Amino acid sequence: MQYRDCSKCKFKCSLKITAQQAGDIFATYYQLGSYEKQRNFICQHVEQTKAKRCTTNRKENSNTYFLSTDGKKERVCKAFFLGILHVSKKTVEYSLKKKEHGVFVGCDNRGKKPSINRTPEGDRHFIREHIQSFPTVSSHYTRKDSNRQYLSSNLSVQKMHQLYEKECQRKSKKPCKINVYRDTFCNEFNLAFHKPKKDQCSTCTIYYEKKQRGEITKEDEEQFQEHQTMKEKSREEKRLDKERAKTDRSFAAVTFDLEAVLPTPCSMVGDLFYKRCLSTYNLSFYSLGDSKGTCYLWDETNGGRGSSDIGSCILMHINSIAEKKYRC
């Protein structure tokens, strides 16, 4: 609200309406809430009549402005009226233009006109279909507690957009810019290109999460310190086993790990990105004594990566060591 000193204007506006009364009028106007009610308020407080004198500006109509206080309409000047209601000259002109029989009959069209820069829904739909055409791949370990899906690590949003442009060219469509493609990918899909890392110690993870929340108890601290002690002991035992395996040929010390899923075939040929690759698994063993590695490789047509599959590989490797007359 802009309350101005109009004591010297011919209507003596500020003498008729005090600053407190002006504040009440301002509050009443904006408490009306709806666009139509506010415009109707203007129509009820501005009277439009035919211009009595012809001037060089060719004005056809004259406006008379009023503000209500204590149940009485007080005539005010145009500047005072616009300042109290905090509206523009064009707002008043539009309200009077849409006035019929003393009532505002227009409607609020703001925000209803579609943006000229908005991407057509058909183009967005084609982008969605293109993103969905890429098969998701299995992640390392499991994804049972995650809703996120994973695309081949050979892909990226930029690479996908390049393939999208080729698809548009093939279908004689005008492609959208990469920023539109990226916006659709990031905001409408829960997809990623990396594999989730789940081979973390659950005890350490729970401890650090509690510590971050400030929920560590004395018992938690004692259990964590005991866990850290066992970790150091395990590392020391591993170091001793490694040293023994290097000098004692009848003793074997072996580590093993399951590699991330290998999509097969691995190729940068565009058409292959739309095909579901064969999942291949690799369980690797490493002998600490002679620094030799052994890989057990199979694909999803031969088995999965469950406990029985991994256990079979471990048993097979132990038997191969026993055949060499090692003692495990």
UniProtKB/TrEMBL annotation:
<feature type="compositionally biased region" description="Basic and acidic residues">
    <location>
        <begin position="224"/>
        <end position="242"/>
    </location>
</feature>
<feature type="region of interest" description="Disordered">
    <location>
        <begin position="219"/>
        <end position="242"/>
    </location>
</feature>
<protein>
    <submittedName>
        <fullName>Uncharacterized protein</fullName>
    </submittedName>
</protein>
